[in-house]
Amino acid sequence: MNRASWTTEWTYMLRILQRNPDRIPMERLGEYIRQFAELLGTDNHPVFAGIKKASTGLKAAIPHDRRPYAQARLVEAKSKPASKPARLLRGIEEMLGRDLIRKAQLLDSANNVVYLFEGRHEESNQAAKLYQQGTVDGTLTGIVGADDTMHAHLRDHFDRDLKLIIRDEGLARELLKQFRSGLVRLHIRGMWQRTDFGWAPESNKCTVEAFDVLDDSSLRDIFSDFASTPDNGWRSMEDPLAEWDSLRGLH
Questions:
Q1: pLDDT, tens only, 146-178
Q2: d(Cα 200, Cα 187) in Å, to the nearest integer?
Q3: How would you class 56 by CB atoms within 10 Å of its CB: exposed for 0-12, middle for 13-18, buried for 19 or more?
Q4: Are residues 51 and 27 in the same domain?
Q5: 208 lies in the same domain as 227
Q6: What pTM was estimated for this model as a whole?
Q7: Structural domain harbouring 188
Q8: Is-contact 13 106, C-beta < 8 A?
Q9: In this structure, are 251 and 157 located in the same domain?
Q10: pLDDT score for 44
Q11: Residue 245 per-residue DSSP state
């Protein structure tokens, strides 16, 4: 292959809408890049030309002498549903659906939309939801409601704002005492959905059944209290640090 045929300018971009690069796990981003390269045709020698942080834009550069072949491959992908390129198009749409991404664009270097990907949202949502009992930890930021059903707002450690249902007025009054005063653990039951950060309760689809107030003391304060406790047994151990590592599962 003639090196003179290469260019540093991008030829095509897979733009994943409404999802910044720092919200896509690196391993998953690599899968999108691999699928994108196969769509363009590996024998057309596409190379990675960078990421544009406009949503997430994966840029690919193709040598000048291979661009007509890549373009023909994309035309085949759109016009022949049974072809391998068409299956790769659908494969990207399935990936978007599993990641709960609604749309993506395939752009050329003039920013023309060559193809609009539609994530298969309904199928992926059904596969990525389940009804279960669980717990969530965070800071209570509010409780609202004018009827028998109230809504609790919880900011969790992923900085997500979770909206949960409370049907017990007495429970709501007790929980309200913890408003922005520390960490609480809510015991909930309802519909959960898979997100970039693991499973999370679906908005207004889980009911709070109980809660615990969590101790948010620093590790330094905890060890200080522990060290001041008489006859705690720590000093009598032959190797207390090794015991601590064992308790943490490091051995």
A1: 677 899 999 998 888 899 999 999 999 999 999
A2: 13
A3: buried
A4: yes
A5: no
A6: 0.47
A7: 140-213
A8: yes
A9: no
A10: 93
A11: H
**DSSP conformation class of 228:** H
Question: Does residue 66 lie within any of the structural domains?
Answer: yes
- 244 pLDDT band (50/70/90 cuts)? confident
Q: Domain ends where: 125, 153, 169?
A: 125
Beginning with the edge strand found earlier in the chain, give each strand of the sheet holding 12-16 in spatial order.
47-52, 56-61, 12-16, 103-108, 113-118
Give the type of residue at 247: L
Contact indicator for 18, 119 with CB cutoff of 8 Å: no
pLDDT tens digits, 135-150: 999 999 999 986 778 9
Tally of domains within the chain: 3
Tokens of 127: 């596969």
The tens digit of pLDDT for each residue in 80-122 reads 989 999 999 999 999 998 888 889 999 999 999 999 999 865 4
Tell me how crowded residue 89 is: count the other CB atoms within 10 A of its CB: 20
Q: How far apart are CA 158 and CA 54, in angstroms?
A: 23
Burial of 192 (0-12, 13-18, 19+ CB in 10 A): buried
179-182: Cβ within 8 A, 24+ apart:
179/140, 179/141, 179/142, 179/143, 180/139, 180/140, 180/141, 181/140, 182/139, 182/213, 182/214, 182/216
Q: What is the mean pLDDT of residues 199-203?
A: 90
Domain annotation covers residue 134: no
Instruction: Report yes or no: 15 and 57 within 8 Å, Cβ to Cβ.
Output: yes
